[in-house]
Amino acid sequence: MIETERAGRTFKVRGAVVHAVRDLSFRIEPGEFVGCLGPNGAGKSTTIKMLCGILTPTSGRVRVAGLDPSRGRTALARRIGVVFGQRTTLWWDLPLRDSFELVRLLYKVDRKLFQVRLDELTEALDLGGFTRTPVRQLSLGQRMRGDLAAALLHDPEVLVLDEPTIGLDVVSKAGIRSFLLRVNAERGTTVLLTTHDLGDVERLCRRVLLIDHGRLAFDGTVGDLMATAPGQATIEEVVTRLYTRGRAAPPPVEPV
Ligand SMILES: Nc1ncnc2c1ncn2[C@@H]1O[C@H](COP(=O)(O)OP(=O)(O)OP(=O)(O)O)[C@@H](O)[C@H]1O
C-alpha cells in the first residue's frame, strides 16, 4: 500500500546540501498500523510529505496505493487522508460543518454517502457540540477531531498522520487513539503516523520505523524494538538508546 525504494530528498540551504532523507526503503501492507519515530530533524515530516506528493523525491521511488504521489497527486488525494497535527487543513473562519461541506465538494463525494459518513464520524469523534463553531474558536482537541473527520470524509484507504496527538491532554489523546484503532480495525484503513509520544507507539502501533539522520535505523515490531535493549528497559530507555547511538553518525549536510 505504501512503498519507498531508496527514496531520498535533499534541500539546498545557504550553499550546502542537506540530506533530509536518504536511501529510504520500506513497504507497508494494506491494513497495517505503523508508527514512525525519530529525533527532531531526522526526516520524518519530509518522508510524510513525499508520501503525500507535497515534496518530490530527489532520488529513488515512492508509491502509495500504486500511484506516484508527486505525479498523481489528484488521483492520490481521493485515496489518502492526511493530518498535520501542527497545521490545520480546515478553513479558519468557517464553522466546522462548512469546512466539511467544502471537503465534500473538493472530493466530489456523493451527498448521501457523505451524510452517512459524516453521521458516523460525528458520533465516533463526538463532534456534535461544535460543528457550528468557527474553527478558530475550537480548542486544540476539538480542532484535531475536526481535522481527522475532514481527512476521513472521503473514506480513504490510507491515513497518514504527522504528530496527531501533539499538545493534547491525556483524555483527548485517549479519545483520538481509540478512534484511530477503530478506523484501522473496522475499515481496514492503513495507518502511518509520526509521533514523539511513545504512548502512541505502545497503544497503537504493531510496527515501528525509526528514522535517524534521514536513514531507516530500525524496522520491526514493538517487541523487536524492546529486544534491542537488555533487561527490563522501558520504551523511553530503549528509544533514547537508539537516538543517542545515532548521534555518532555523520551530519547530513555537505557542501554543494
Ligand atoms: N523546506 C526545507 N528546506 C530546507 N531544509 C529542510 C526543509 N524541510 C526540512 N528540512 C531539513 O531536513 C531535515 C529533516 O527535517 P524534517 O522536518 O523532515 O524532520 P522531522 O524528523 O520531521 O523533525 P521534527 O521531529 O523536529 O518535526 C532537517 O535538517 C530540516 O532542517
Automatic annotation (TrEMBL):
GO terms for biological process: response to antibiotic. One of its GO terms (molecular function) is ATP binding. Keywords: Antibiotic resistance, ATP-binding, Nucleotide-binding, Transport. It comes from the Bacteria. It is found in: Cell membrane. It is a peripheral membrane protein. Residues 2-238 form the ABC transporter domain. This is ATP-binding cassette domain-containing protein. It comes from Nonomuraea montanisoli.
